[in-house]
Amino acid sequence: MNGEGSLKPVVDSLFERRAKERAAQFAEHLERRFGAIVPAAAPAPGAARGWLARLAGWIGRLWRRIIGRAGAKVD
Question: pTM for this one?
Answer without folding.
Answer: 0.40
